[in-house]
Amino acid sequence: MNYAQSNTSKLEGVVIDSYGTVPGAEIKLEGTEIGTVTDLSGRFSIKNVPSGETTLSITFLGYQTYEKTLNLEAGVSMDLGEITLKEDYSELKEVVVKSTYRPSQARALSIQKKSAAIMNVLAADAIGKLPDRNAAEAVQRIQGVSIERDHGEGRYVSVRGAPLKWNSNLINGNRLPAAVGTSDGLGTGSDRSVPLDIFPSELIQYVQLSKAITPDMEGDAIGGSVNFITRTAPYERTLNVNLAGGYNNQAQDGSYNASVLYGDRFFNDKLGIIISGAAWERNWGTDNYEVGYNADLEDPNQQFSVSQLELRDYIGKRSTLGLNVGAEYNFNDDHKIFFRGISTSFEDDERSREFLFLFNEDAAQIRQRKAIWGTYLSGGEFGGEHQLTEKTSLSWKGATYRTKANLGSTPTPNPDEGAGLLLGIFRQQNVGFQGLSPDGYKYLEGDAPQGVAGDPFNNIQPNMANPLSPDQLFIENLLNFEQSSEEQDYIGQLDVEHEASDKLTFKFGGKFRSKTRSEASPLTIFVPGALVGVPDSPFPFLNNYETEAFPSNGGFLTELGENYNDQLVDQVTQDELLNLFRPESIDELNAIRIRQDENNPSSAASFFEGTENVFAGYAMLTYNINEKLSFIGGFRNEMTSIDYTGNKVILDEDENPSIVVAEGNRTTNAFLPMAHLKYSPEDNINIRAAYTRTFARPSFGSLNPGTTQNDAFQVISRGNPDLNPTFSDNFDLMGEYFFDNVGVLSGGVFYKRITDDIFNSTSQQNINGLLYTITEPRNLENGYLVGFEAGLSKRLDFLPGVLSGFGIDVNYTYTDSEVDVPVFNVNGAGTIEKSILKQPLPNQSQHLYNASLFYEKYGILARIAANYKGKNVVGFSEFGPEHNRWYDENLTIDFSAAYAFNNKVRVFLELNNLTNEPLRYFHGNVNRPEQVEYYSLRGQLGISYQLF
């Protein structure tokens, strides 16, 4: 922009320190209210600066204040170039302080301090110095955050105890497409949750967790908005290499990790590029036992009897690959274009060996499965930033991102079949369970009838008169479960900002997103001919196949004392399992083939396609009432139009099923007003108050119009394309005190008033004189979530000598919730009655805390960190609250340490799960386990080398 005809000037520059550019630094012109904050690349630009002499002041947490007197000429733009800040240490001795965490924390806290939204920030360097393996595990250290794990590794993020479906996961401000099917192990199904273990932490520049959003952010964020900002071009040439190797004690096998980052600037710094890549490969293992109960029995005294015990031994190898590229070109001070691209993949080559003891059937099964679970993300964005006039700027962006998820196997045993999860099931009849009660059921201690000794919950024994034997275990069936889902987004965005005055700024814009979604879950079942009467069919006993010793890799459930080693048998080898699915093996068994796909009534409803178009617009203003008080207000409106095509199974008058196409469409509108007040009585104090209205769209699986009706069991399962979005009115009050030596004391309260939450409803309905059980998603009526949070990050540099390197990071969050769940029952007169049952929100833990003690001095950084998540209900049972599925409290302790030899070379050590904390789910009562998993200790040792 040409200032030659203006009476004002433009002032710009870039703030750096010895570690790179400095975002979030506060720029002020002394004696005026004119100022700004450096952006994420450390740059600042102040327009319409009065000419004449002025003093520039730059402040940043943990750094000395920078001051410089300037003489500005009217109509002249002044570029100050690099401005270097110096760290402000509370004590200076003849010791070279090689800080490794402090600058990164200073950057994150400064962005948080100056943010308009209620936000927590995690910087890239801090992620690399926490004992965490991926983005989800790093984010769990933020106040109010908990995670869901899969085989010991973090996968999904929950904010303030809200359900996973209420959280928004973004990449560079755009909602990430989600394509994780029903077999991810965590019950997310076809919802909008994004598995964050797909992100190697090396690709991330910053993580912004917004707990109260502003109108220019995506509005579907009831719990919170987690924005992953990928790396951008550095200010100067950078080349960094990391190499690490590790070990997983449960798998008794190794792992490796390598990453490289290169960035540079060309053509007089006009062109900046960055390329970063990461590769992770790690072996893992899990020992698991699961318990089923007879909750469906009519006699309440028998409903807590044990129906089955399942033992599982998992061995797997996980591979994560990531590549991030970025480029920007500055035509001049007023015009810039940029590009960001990312490609990541997560593959889990998993093998499970399982034993099931079916107490109600006097039978047992052994199962072996093999699969590769894959999730793949790719995409990018191209955009520009332009200063149109002295007071008006414009930015634009076009983007596309795609996520795919599928099941595969290597090698593919049958070219004619899709590659999926391969499951071989062997069965033994008449095992003769002993120790059952007189009524014929298995019980645990505390639930057993009088005079019956139940089993301890951590030592449930099959006690078989006829133990498992290879010459009695026969192939019951072979299953090939395929699954694929894909979601693609196309995005266009435009934002305009206008400075009406030094105090008042308007911003408005719009975004369009077109999403396509498809999902398919075919299943092929092979049943040996001998089981269904096919002549001349061999009976396939286990002793006819190649087996291998069990247990292996250090034993099975050693945490429970190896209670089962004498009762388990060897299983088929992995190669033998693959051979069973080859065409020649299927022919030898004379197996019949049952294909469940979109043409089969039993599975057709699980196949669907959909298109979702979102039209969003917003308007907001920022008004600086005075130096201490500012106001942000405005609204966002998001209109969502969805079209779905699925399958519906219907019966003719002779009860023959047929499949018809089911179509659904739905248009909803979300009007979202928002208001923020920020009061700063002192430079290092913020008091924030916010009202925001946010929402959550229904999941894709819930909107699927498909319907399946089973008349043999009188069961109907269907989707609901008429679901309303869930809305929340959010009230937040937060206080922050920032320490000069880089730290923060914060606390606040929050309240969410919920309408139209979505749950899976089970009801009964009379159809032609028969009573059917109907399962479908429905909107709840009312609910709330309320709580408070507090945190302290403090360096204890007031301690003498060597002790001054200690510091603490602690935070705690309490939440409580309640939703009105409608229950439908048939009374004695055959009339359906509705009642209301008050329940807590699923996945909502009342208590969350993080606590860590760290030491940072003399080039040493050591940290021991604890993460606690309290118990929470994860599934409501149709048989009553005493049968609900609960997640048990969980406390994990991790350790990391690093030593910086100089500014270029650093060695590091990471250890996870020091106490071998198990994952536990229980059935209404903590002494009734449903699922227990052990992962043991894992860790890695590595080196980081900053070449330049």
UniProtKB/TrEMBL annotation:
- Where's it mainly located? membrane
Q: Which GO terms describe its cellular component?
A: cell outer membrane
Q: Where in the cell is it found?
A: Cell outer membrane
The chain positions of domain TonB-dependent receptor-like beta-barrel read 439-914
Top-down, what is the taxonomic lineage of the species of origin? Bacteria, Pseudomonadati, Bacteroidota, Flavobacteriia, Flavobacteriales
Q: What name does this protein carry?
A: TonB-dependent receptor
Indicate the family of this protein: Belongs to the TonB-dependent receptor family.
Q: Report the residue ranges that make up the TonB-dependent receptor plug domain in this protein.
A: 113-224
Pfam families registered for this protein in UniProt = CarbopepD_reg_2 (PF13715), Plug (PF07715), TonB_dep_Rec_b-barrel (PF00593)
